[in-house]
Amino acid sequence: MADVIGLLDDNCETVDSSDDRHPVRPSGFCYRYAKFLARFWYVVCLLVFVIVTACGVVTFKVYDLPDFSEPQKGFEARGTVIRSREFSLLHLRDNDLLVPRPSDADVNQGNFSKTSGSLKFRGPRTVDNKPLVPAGQSLSSIDAQSDTMVESSDLEPTSSTGFQFCTSIWNEGQYSVSTMVFEGVDGTNVLTMEAIKSVCEAEKRLVTFHPAYKSNCDCSFQGSGDCPTWSIGNYVALLANKTSCADIEQEDVRRATDLLALCAPIYGNTSKEDLLNPDLRKNLPDECIQHKYAAFAILHYLLPIAFSQNIDGQTALSSPICEVLFPITDSDALETIFKESVEKKSDTDGITRLKAVSFHIKFELFSDLLISDVMYMAISAGAIFLLIWVYTGSLLVAIVAFLNIVFSLVLADFCYTVVFVRPFFPFANIITVILMLGVGADDTFVYMDLWKKTKSEMGDRDIPGLVCETLRHASATMIVTSLTTAAALYATVFSHITALKCFAVFAGTGIIMNLVLTLTLLPAVIVMQHKLATWCCSLKICSQSCLSKGNGCLKTLSQRVKMVYEDLIPFLVLKLRYVWIVLFLLLMTGGAVVVFYYPRFRLPSSAEFQVFVSSHYFEQYDFVYREQFAFSQERFYDARGSVTWGVQALDNGNTWDPDDQGTLLLDDGFKFSSLEDQAWLLNFCQDLRKQAFYRSETQIDCFIEPFVDFMQNPRCKTFGIDLSPCCNQSESTYSPYLFETCMAKFADLSLFYQQVFFRKTDAKLAVIKIDFQTIFPSSYNFAKNDEFWVNVNTWVEDKLESAPKSLQRGWFVGTYGGLLFYDLQQSLATGTRNSMVITLAVASGILLLAMRNLLLTLLSMLTIASAVFVTVASLVLLGWELNIVEATIITLAVGLSVDFTIHYGVAYKLSPSDTRRQRARYSLTTMTPAITLAAFSTFLAGALVLPSTVLFYNRFAIFLMLVMSISWAHGTFFFQSLCMVIGPQGSCGDIPGLSKCGCSKQETGNVQPEQEQTSMHTYDNHVETNVLSDDVDFILGTDQALPPEQNYSMSL
Q1: Domain SSD spans what residues (predicted)?
Q2: What CA–CA distance (Å, rounded) separates 830 from 952?
Q3: Most-buried pick from 55, 858, 949, 979 (CB within 10 A)?
Q4: What is the rounded CA–CA span in Å between residue 475 and residue 939?
Q5: Which of 384-393, 550-559, 583-592, 923-932 has the lowest mean pLDDT?
Q6: Which of 771, 697, 665 is nearest to 135 (CA)?
Q7: pLDDT over threshold 50, residue 478
């Protein structure tokens, strides 16, 4: 069999064994590996299949499948200063180490008879069912809240006749009510009779006529089966004493709009809470309070804020949008209604159109859409499979290329779950599938092109030599491109955001696994294919006429394609090289201005977590319409802050697991009792009141001040409790013994609740905390939060520097959600920038080692930097914000931008010529076909996923399309133009200290210079073999090479 293989070429013709076309005999590891592949290809295939199967069984049988029911999980900063302090404060409120009163400690559990029995329970002590000293508020505020709760029932609209609501709109909060937003078609007014009735019909068609609504609405318990919505039509019916919005007339609408024109200026910015004020209510006109404030309900809940603001008394009242609120909260029923009705039925009747929905099931629906959108990945995979099949001419190679991608994901999952023991698998990891489709196809195209080119030059008599020569060229580029892409991902491991780190490890490992399989399984299968084709020919199973079927058409198409990459592209690069250089330098400069100066990447402006594309109903409501309605606008109160001593501000949980938030760590070195400690803390609280950021009309929860007041109080009995000797003291500081004794006594009375904490084991004072209110608003605005954090934290840290040693380890943190969002914004900005810098540095090192030429490396890095700037600038101009999804994607900008430039650069370096022009031409003609197909396949992978509803899929698809187009253009035109103008010639720029890798070494032995020169310059005497002109069997992929043809390149 071996003799037959050695004497036959792919066209089943006998080869003269005396024709030694390639007398060079390689040696070293690369050749030994190639020889093993050529001889034991079946061992390699079997070994790969066994390993992948074993890893897959372990991963999917032993470990649980990922759960995507909480998509927002993991998308928060971990290990940062602010997050660590927030976690420590959270643990302080709920832990098993501390108690708020010494009497609750284990050491005192048997001594309750010495104190009042009311101290047996945890929480503030009460007298007559009211807190003795309420935590953070006064008794009057609690009474006011109680009154508010009672009086809110007075706002429910009732009517003895006509329309009836079955429940009250006033009890609905913005995070529980189900909402739809309707818009007049072409922006027309929705306050017309036709539009109001259109909305009424739409709510019936889409929601209220659905069986799930009738059986699960909040009114279903009444047995009537009628659950009217809170809509403008129903309120107009209420005001007109009609039974249904279908019965209203034009005059009813006119009277309702007149009422709104009267009441809107009066209500102004009045909130529901303000309306509960009796002083405000008694000054309102009777028309504005009829039907229990129906006009306010319409203005507050159903019409946008701009409607009231635009009333000038001269122009007719109009509004382009309105809301409808539904009395249903059952999430399962709402999900059924959305899937079966809202998504499937028409959103317009020609008068009004449904624009946004808020059913509060976004995250519940996400898991389903995440899986259903995999359909687009499947279509993308099928298209790339067909592209590989057509381009390579081999079904077998296409199957193996696809298996490479699947096996890479299986091995990556095994390493991620079993080897690296990562406990959390975010949904962001699924995007690796799209990435692997592009990368896997790229490597297959490059390897197959080099295999065909090498075989056309060397023949196929020496299979080990053929495999070795192919691997020598392919590994040089594949290793570099894979390592740089993996490095771009692994650099993100330093991010503070859990989901980003997990994605980096999983995707980076997938890239490495794909490289390993491309250099093992793919060559082994190609050798198998070659031997099958030779065996087929030796048995006369296939004939020359069969192999030549359709060859004429393929040759014609091949010649047209080859004219592009052998004639047209080199001609454009050479003749317009200075134009390309100037053009791309201008693009790079413009990109840098956009990225670093203006408009730059904007930080996320909303704390809402977006999971679907912006056009989705849910995201339209959250990001476009929510803030347009008064009832859903958050009322931000002033930001509060806390200074804490006795707790270590450390995030000691597993930062790779969002469910592991760590435990409370006490500062064992903290002790507060000395005179110096007391004096300093008292002075700290007094200075705090003088600061510009402190809201002067509020109280500071600083226990040391009331402690001194109680100590100086001449009355030694309170509520029948003897406070001696903790009373009638004249000083403001006390001996450690007296301080500890009185602190325990006062704390047992819950006088400093949530301000001091004691160890549960020995009842010793362990933690003290001071709370205060600032003038800064609690919001999600980055600039405001930055001002708050920098001002307050800087002042606290400066004060702590002068504190006694035991108090110097205190720390400050804001106690509101906006600060955590600010922390996330900071992490995204710094993490993304740091990851890109690290990636560029690593890529530079890898390029230098691969090319071993300083000048070529500099030109490559200039090209890559330009491609990155232009790519990121394009995303900025598309309006992207630097949110978590975008940050995850942008970290790949460097890794994916290097691939094509590296392929061209390595080919330039390996060129047998010495002149710039010939080297650049060799690089272009050798690599352009494979690189172009690789770029097109990855572009296609993104384009086919573009219709996805899931934001991550959609954003990544856009990114892939951009980065492939931009990096291909930069590599082909900018890099090659630079090489033609200032590229290295001969050994110029070579670094002699860097030796070649094993697969780049070749011992030539006693080879005549003429023979070697002839072999290396074959590319000038014939065109590379393209699969489209091969004699192809689409089942076996016989991989025949055409005889050399004359080079028809135009004279340059």
Answers
A1: 397-528
A2: 21
A3: 979
A4: 24
A5: 550-559
A6: 771
A7: yes
Rounded Cα distance, 399 and 521, in Å: 12
Q: Describe the crossing of helices 916-945 and 951-969 by its angle, rounded to 10 degrees.
A: 160
Using H for helix, E for strand and C for coil, what is the string for 739-781? HHHHHHHHHHCCCCCCCEEEECCCCCEEEEEEEEEEEEECCCC
On whether the CB atoms of residues 502 and 430 are closer than 8 A, the answer is no
For residue 626, the SS3 value is helix
pLDDT class for 773, splitting at 50, 70, 90? Answer: very high
pLDDT band for position 158 (50/70/90)? Answer: very low
CB atoms within 10 A of CB 578: 11
Length of the chain, please?
Answer: 1052
Query: Does the pLDDT at position 411 exceed 80?
Result: yes
DSSP-assigned states of every residue in 816-827: SHHHHHHHHHHH
Examine the pLDDT at 574 and tell me if it is beyond 70: yes
DSSP state of 167: S
Measured CA to CA, the distance from residue 670 to residue 725 in angstroms comes to: 26
Residues 185-215: tens digit of each pLDDT = 998 999 999 999 999 999 999 999 999 998 8
Q: CA-to-CA distance for 580 and 577, rounded, in angstroms?
A: 5
pTM of the prediction? 0.81
Q: 162 — alpha (psi -120 to 50), left (phi > 0) or beta?
A: left
- Position 89 pLDDT exceeds 80: yes
CA dist., res. 603 & res. 830, Å (int): 11
Residue type, position 573, single letter? V
Q: How confident is the model at residue 707 (pLDDT cuts 50, 70, 90)?
A: very high
Q: Based on the number of CB atoms within 10 Å of its own CB, is 419 exposed (0-12), middle (13-18) or buried (19 or more)?
A: exposed
Q: What percent of the chain has pLDDT over 90?
A: 44
Residue found by looking up tokens 């014609």 in the block: 556
CA 134 from chain center: how many Å? 42
Q: What letter would DSSP give residue 720?
A: T
Task: Judge whether residue 121 has pLDDT over 60.
Answer: no
Q: How many angstroms separate the Cα of 355 from the Cα of each of 318, 607, 621?
A: 18, 22, 8
* pLDDT for position 465: 87
Cis-peptide, bond into residue 725, ω within 30° of zero: yes
Q: Which residues contact 543 (CB under 8 A, 6 or more apart)?
A: 12
Three-state secondary structure call for residue 853: strand
Which residue is it, tokens 């310059």? Answer: 1017
pLDDT at 766 over 70: yes
Separation between Cα atoms, residue 589 and residue 584, nearest integer Å = 8
Cα separation, 383 vs 760, in Å, equals 65
Task: With beta carbons less than 8 A apart as the criterion, state whether 824 and 881 touch.
Answer: no
Mean pLDDT within 738-755: 88
- The verdict on whether omega for the bond into residue 599 sits within 30 degrees of 0, i.e. cis, is yes
Check if the beta carbon of residue 264 is closer than 8 Å to that of residue 299: yes
1000 three-class SS: helix
Q: Is 1040 helix (H, G, I), strand (E, B) or coil?
A: coil
Extended beta strands in 47-144, E state: 98-99, 126-127, 130-131
Torsions phi, psi of 355, nearest 5?
-115, -35
CB 431 within 8 A of CB 516: no
Q: Given this model, what pLDDT does residue 562 score?
A: 67
d(CA 288, CA 266): 9
pLDDT over 90 at 183, yes or no = yes
Is residue 372 predicted with pLDDT exceeding 50?
yes
Encode 888-949 in three state secondary structure: HHHCHHHHHHHHHHHHHHHHHHHCCCCCHHHHHHHHHHHHHHHHHHHHHHHHHHHHHHCCCC
DSSP 462-499: -HHHHHHHHHHHHHHHHHHHHHHHHHHHHGGGG-SBHH
Widest Cα–Cα separation across the chain: 119
- State the residue for tokens 């007075």: 154
What is the Cα gyration radius of the chain?
A: 37
